[in-house]
Amino acid sequence: MIRTPFAPRPEDMPFLRKIAWLVVISAALLIVWRAASLLILVFGSVLGAVVFHAAARLFRRIGIRGEGASLILGILLVLSVVGLIIWLFASQFGYQIRNLGTELPAALAELADNVDDTPLGLTAVAAVRDAIDGAAFRELLGSLSFGVVEIFLNSIIVLVGALFFAASPDVYKRGLVVMTPPAAREKVGIVIEEIALALRLWLVAQLLCMASMGLLVAGGLWLIGVEGWAMLGLLAGLSEFVPYVGPLAAMVPTLALAAPEGGQMIGLVFVVYFAVRMIQTNLITPFVTRSVVSIPPALTLFVILGVGAVFGIYGLFFSAAMLVVAFVGIREIYLRDTLGEEGIEAIPQEVDEDEPQ
Length: 357
Fold this sequence. Notes:
Number of domains: 2
Strand content: under 5%
Number of strands: 0
Helix content: over 70%
């Protein structure tokens, strides 16, 4: 007896499609969970390639028309800037940390004299002393050393991947397009171009915000007399790459270096950071991000925290860029194509100097 192959009834097809989509989505979530670190490194490499090409565009604007030559110069420029920043941090912050180790005990003694009449103050000082004198502090230093090595190795992986992506981006773009159904390939290609443009504009806006943040913080710390104001301003500027969360973390070493000067200096540091944040939020950021995708601040904050919780510290670093990619993808594929929402604002197009006007 010949058994006929299974053939679902037509009325069962909608239910089977839902089951298939559920399986696909579950598999995708499982892959993201199991390979989270690898996916973050891949995204970091893609973002690095975008940075290299953005730097190459600068050289093309000044007259270097060869795409290969401009890309090489752009890569050298980015690597030189990154190397200079690492050297500045390694040299200057090492000196500041050594000074902090010698001055902090005296500062704690002075602080204890000022708060010896309050149980809460004495408890806080005792906790800090236990932290810097005990085994917990040595364990923290060991974990930090291991973290530095891990960051270095992952940075090498991201750099190599970024070089590969930057050298032949069309190969990887075609690979993504080919994996989609033929009817959707044109739209997928457009979405990839939109995402690349959004990332490029976002990076330019972030660089301007980072520069203004660093200059304002450095100037404010210089006015109140904090040592190492230049390096602390540089750290504050770099921290702006992770909105909201980064600047808060960057304030911690500033407070640590200001602690030996007493409570008044710590209060002035808070005033400087608060004033800079108000200027940055209300004046500078709205001006420099007017040509970038507009994402609500609350959504940005909670997405950054969520990505950091799922992907760890590396996800936190790339969370803002990942939000830009997700925002553009959802807008182009779901809101416009699926729901037919045509009134959604698009990304302003750049003027390409290589094309005739």
